[in-house]
Design goal:
about 20% strand, about 375 residues, elongated, about 35% helix, eight-stranded mixed sheet, 10 strands, Rossmann fold, 13 helices
């Protein structure tokens, strides 16, 4: 036995915020792209990597046939507790089983080779050090003839804000910050990089791209919207620098947004990409398993610099990466693989691999400084040039 695990109340709060306010306008949009034309084989074994609070986990579970099993993993036990409750609300699973485990896919998945008929990852791959390594690892655990699907934001996402940010930094001679901005923007992979990821993993398939927009009524709403505040805002602050320098840059950004858009809404484009690949199987004929339907890609850009392992992470990711196990998780670090599950249980449903004690610490201390430009009653600093 191990000592009781601790999880902060802040992590619990972030999981609720993600599910209620970020998932509907972000995760669901990417998840629907992942689900499009998805075929789940009969009596399949499914792996959902970085399942979050359960989209598209629940939708895939609904499409699974009797005798199928899913293993859903996420590094956040608080996120997993949310999806557990959602699955419980579904009622009987009609002889389907789902297993949950707090586990990271970094540096690699803990599963054996050639186990799963379907491997999916909605948005989790963006937080991994290498896109190609992650896709190659997903392909490793897929069976011959199995499918891998991953979604992530592509180059061109938030381009309207990045262009405005770039203009502000150039205007005010913030050359070091400008270099940091270019490195940050280059972290969003291109269509061509996803195609290279498919090839490196020896998968046959396609990359689908779909655009949607996020609309904000003002600069203040932009920076306080949870999808931004718990998403790219930490990176945007780090680009600007620290202390007063960062505060000054965001004053300039606020004024630029107000000047350009006035009372009109400010929108940013999101380019959602979905990598769909099939692992080769010489024993199968093309007609036995539907091939991923190719769709014309839109908005592809020139290749950008690949993401680096030391990329800045968001407050949401930082909060979750240090948390411990949920009381529903096994103290053993290994999961029963699908070929072992019949020996683990003869029934079907929602399975917790073990249980343990848990205690909560009240830790609401914030890490990032507030933005002075959006504080009520805060005046523009006198030292800023007109």
């Amino acid at each position: 036995m191990t000592a009781p695990h601790k999880r902060t109340l802040r992590v619990e709060k972030l999981a609720r915020i993600y599910d209620a306010e970020i998932l509907p306008c972000w995760g669901v949009r990417f998840g629907k792209l992942l689900l499009r034309n998805l075929f789940v084989p009969d009596r399949s074994q499914v792996l959902d990597v970085s399942c979050g609070t359960g989209y598209p986990t629940i939708e895939i579970l609904r499409r699974m046939s009797e005798g199928s099993r899913m293993i859903a993993i996420d590094e956040s036990s608080a996120m997993l507790d949310v999806v557990r409750r959602k699955v419980a609300e579904l009622g009987p699973l009609d002889k389907k089983a789902v297993f949950f485990r707090t586990e990271s896919a970094v540096p690699k998945l803990s599963f054996a080779d050639e186990v799963y008929d379907l491997v999916v990852c909605n948005l989790g791959i963006s937080d991994m050090p290498s896109l190609e390594d992650a896709v190659r690892d997903f392909a490793r655990v897929a069976k011959p003839g199995g499918e891998v699907r991953c979604t992530l934001p592509l180059a061109g996402t938030f381009s309207e804000f990045h262009d405005l940010y770039r203009e502000v930094l150039v205007k005010h001679d913030k050359h070091e910050a400008l270099d940091r901005l270019e490195r940050h923007v280059a972290r969003y992979p291109t269509f061509e990089q996803l195609e290279r990821g498919l090839a490196a993993a020896e998968l046959t398939g396609s990359v689908e791209v779909e655009e949607f927009a996020l609309l904000f009524r003002s600069a203040r709403e932009l920076f306080f919207a949870p999808v931004i505040e718990y998403g790219p805002l930490a990176d945007w602050k780090a680009v600007a620098g620290g202390g007063q320098e960062m505060q000054d840059v965001f004053w300039y950004i606020k004024e630029a947004i107000d000047a350009y858009f006035g009372d009109r809404p400010f929108h940013v484009t999101v380019k959602a990409g979905c990598l769909i690949g099939r692992k080769a199987d010489q024993t199968l004929h093309d007609h036995e398993i539907p091939a991923p339907e190719a769709r014309p890609a839109r908005g592809a850009r020139k290749p950008a610099t690949p993401a680096t392992p030391d990329a800045i992470t968001t407050p949401l990711a930082r909060a979750f990466e240090t948390e411990d196990l949920s009381p529903f998780d096994s103290l053993d670090t290994s999961l029963p693989f699908p070929h072992d599950l019949d020996h683990a249980t003869d029934d079907f449903g929602v399975h917790e691999l073990a249980s343990g004690d848990i205690s909560f610490e009240n830790d609401d201390a914030g890490g990032d400084p507030d933005l002075d430009a959006f504080a009520d009653g805060k005046k523009r600093p006198h030292h800023l040039a007109d």
